[in-house]
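Practice problem. Given the sequence and the SMILES for magnesium ion, write out the predicted structure.
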Amino acid sequence: MSKQYKPAVRIEDLSFHYQDRNVLEHITFEIPVGSFMGLVGPNGSGKSTLIRCLLGLLKPQSGNVYLFGQPLSLFKNWDEIGYVSQKANSFNTAFPATVYEVVSMGLFGKVGLFRFLNKVHKRKIEQAIETVGMADYMNRNIGELSGGQQQRVFIARALVSDPKLLILDEPTVGVDAASVAGFYQMLKNLNREKGLTLLLVTHDIGVMSDFVTHVACLNKQLHFHGNTAEFEKVSKEGFSQMYGHHVHVLEHQH
Amino acid sequence: MSFPFFQYEFLQNAFITGIMIGLLAPVLGVFIVVRRQSLIADALSHITLAGIAANLMLGRNVGFFSGLNPIYMGMVFSVGGAVGIDQLRKVYKHYEELAIPIIMSAGIGLSVIFISLANGFNTDLFNYLFGSVLAVKKSDVWTIFFILLIVFAFVIFLYKELFVLSFDEEQAAVSGIKGKWINFFFIVLVALVIASSMKIVGILLVSSLMTLPVAASIRLANGFKQTFLLSVVFGETAVILGLILSYYLDFAPGGTIVMFSVIILLLSLLWKKLRSNRKIAINQ
Ligand SMILES: Nc1ncnc2c1ncn2[C@@H]1O[C@H](COP(=O)(O)OP(=O)(O)OP(=O)(O)O)[C@@H](O)[C@H]1O
Ligand SMILES: [Mg+2]
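Answer key:
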């Protein structure tokens, strides 16, 4: 690795286990700046765990994580990272906060301690809400929205700080098919036009391969890691092997 | 019948204190309720009682303590209880709510022992349990004013952080917010507010002033800021009406204030119900 080249994420020989159960074994991989990485794997394969390790929410027993070239423990620019957790819709749904207030939370790290939101921030919040098509719900309580609508709000919260890296853990659970297509298209635009680096966990393998530039397949260990073209070559055998049964990789619909 | 507010200093003290508490308790109460920790206030109020009882007992034997305002000893115990809850939560990571009954029973146990040692109940203790319009001193007013300033600085300057931490701790961590310290300061402030509210509402009822106005406003408000606003309006209404009524009827104010809170809560539920019924009627 040359001094100049700093991937958005670099994970070196990372292993993680809960009390007695190995979840991740010797994972090494990189997410190049500007790429759109799809992370796939069966339920319980450790995808969410890997993401929580790279965000510092879990401490791996061994291995190193670098974000934009900085070791995780020294990394400070959290506003450069947007995150939508898989559990985003298991929050306290009776929480009395409006859509606007929830999205504003995404800016708090950027605004900083002891400071307040200004006009520019407010405009940003409104824009992010418009981007996910929730402008009509700006002042509604988050608890009064449907699951898919809530998910869009959490995506807006992750986008509002103009992150350089956006991490999405199954963000489209509960979002209807038409919106999912639109949502992936939006991610693709952000990636191709604004250079946003994306890490997307999903089970929508067919849909995903239309949009991503790189794929990683995880099941405790990393089974595949490379760009989409390479992935298409190995996907047929690779998937059945990893999932333990035959998988139909959906054909693209053009 | 005019209310002799300007005639008696004790009434002024009681009202000024009441108005400050009517502001403080619901403001912190909003965060407590949305975090689903409503019982923390109960645990801390009972440990405060142990502090008061300890001071009353010591006051019998040691000259220094008989001259000391028991509110300070109450605060020491209450803050100690807050630290205890904070530590216990770390021990019982997956059963965080266990910290509350542990501290609560320790508080009651200690109170009973100190009260027995102090030779049982007296009017002082009665005032602390249920509140009193007569018992508020100038020094109480200043102490509470000082706490009000601290709480306001804390809530205004750390509003964003408190908000995210209450909504979802994981997001807070990913935003680089140092949750541990803020949570710790928060619970210490709750302890201080509880100890300082007891002269007016009484130890047994202080937690209701933190939770009932919030319970009412959460049903009606749109958003977090509005929840604050309504909670404070409800809290102040209950305190002011409760104090006036308790003065005329010569009741302990804790009872009247809490009953006004309950009435406000019932009215808010009724209002919500009527409103949603009307919506349904219109839709049909
Ligand atoms: N808090 C926990 N304590 C113990 N084991 C856990 C815990 N969380 C997850 N696990 C285990 O770790 C493994 C990996 O879980 P993880 O959530 O990372 O899977 P995943 O790939 O995200 O699955 P899914 O596709 O269902 O979201 C699973 O076997 C799970 O049982
Ligand atoms: Mg997962």
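Check your answer against the key. Chain A touches chain B at residues 55-57, 76, 78-79, 81, 83, 85, 87, 91-92, 94-98, 100-102, 105-106, 108-109, 111, 113-114, 139-141, 157 (CB under 8 Å).
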